[in-house]
From TrEMBL:
Organism: Falsiroseomonas stagni DSM 19981
SUPFAM superfamilies for the chain: Bacterial luciferase-like
Highest taxon, organism lineage: Bacteria
Any one GO molecular function term: oxidoreductase activity, acting on paired donors, with incorporation or reduction of molecular oxygen
InterPro entries for the chain: Diverse_substr_monoxygenases, Luciferase-like_dom, Luciferase-like_sf, NTA_MOA
CDD domains, per the entry: Nitrilotriacetate_monoxgenase
Domain Luciferase-like: 24-384
Residues that hold FMN according to the record: D57, T103, Y157, S227, S228
Name of this chain's protein: FMN-dependent oxidoreductase, nitrilotriacetate monooxygenase family
Pfam families: Bac_luciferase
Family membership: Belongs to the NtaA/SnaA/DszA monooxygenase family.
Keywords: Flavoprotein, FMN, Monooxygenase, Oxidoreductase
Keyword Flavoprotein: yes
Amino acid sequence: MRKMHLVAYMKTGPSASYPSTWRHPTATLDDLFEPTRWERIAQVLEAGFFDACFFADGLGVPDLYKGNFDDYVGRGGQLSLLDPMTLLPLMARVTSRLGLGATLSTTFHNPYNLARSLGSLDILSKGRVAWNVVTTAREFEAQNCGEEGLPPKDQRYDRADEILEACTALWEGWDEDALVLDKASGVFADPSKIRYAHYKGKHVASRGPLSIPRSPQGRPVIMQAGSSDRGRAFAARWAEMIFCSPATKSAALAYRTDIRARMDAIGRNPDECAVLPSFTVVLGETESIAKEKAAFIESQVDPELVIAAASWSVAADLSVIDDEGALVAQSGNQGVQGHRDRVMQVAKAKGISFAQAVRLPRDLVVGTPAQVADMMEDWFKSGAADGFILPPTVFPTTFEEVATMLVPELQRRGLFRTRYAAATLRGNLLDPG
């Protein structure tokens, strides 16, 4: 029986995707910079048989709202206070099966360094690393990396294709048995099983060979969140996990159907990619308890921070913009298409304007474990999802409750694993159940 996948969405700052949750009484702040914070949550997720966790990330401090970063920083936005690549080894050390993902841009990194750093972590974790590939969607991030601005979106994706081609050539430059390690014969490695990449594209090049051997899963798992037509084409070619944020089941079904059709058209098996919509859940022992918890979480939301965060997502200053046309005109080459799409879906579903919808926090999925599992099962069995990305409303409480309350309910229904089938992330993603 086909099983669903669960992936935890995390940030290294005060909150992940739902605004103001750092203010919640059970949210921990005193351990933000403690290794034990990340080690503990990795163990919680592995005890709950999550496929993986991944860190969303950015290359700067958002300052689009009102032309400064005052509200975003002062009110505790979705900041990246640490480089996630420094946390993955900590989490790998205390787990043995949980996949570990980081976000890295193909626009501002070269293929050799990407292949080397991600490949090294994949070796040290024994084949559990995922790379969330982004092309970067905001001008201030480009300026932090020494550029005047962003290249056009299609050009960014063209470069991303070449980066993935080059990284793949580098990772595949070592055969599985290239390392010999024979003291008696004095043969450390077999040179005939190590190759140059000799990759040359329009945007990037890499000579190779890579200085590190092949990892237990061959190469890191590729994760992506393409929403535009070009982004979907990229995802269909490369992604093994796709993160999406549809506002309705029908939108999720249309997205997954499109991705699978694109994969089939280029000769990829659609079952080799898990499409994972985002669900922000609030659980309670009873429905009334869950609703009370959700109401309290919503009462903590700072409306100004919601708009500041939305300004960052759509790459436009929402303090002076109140319609979609003006937003697109101001954001130009920037912004996350998936967020714009979700806002339009919300506006249509709720019968409200774009200006109203863009100022709302994400809808919460609220209920008992059985009620939340009902919705997840419906999406899963109807073909709208292969599983779910789960951001926390409160860190670490949300993940603890999912692992101890929701996962057992999904297991009882036969929808989720009761053990890991493989030692590598790719092996668990491809397990037919």
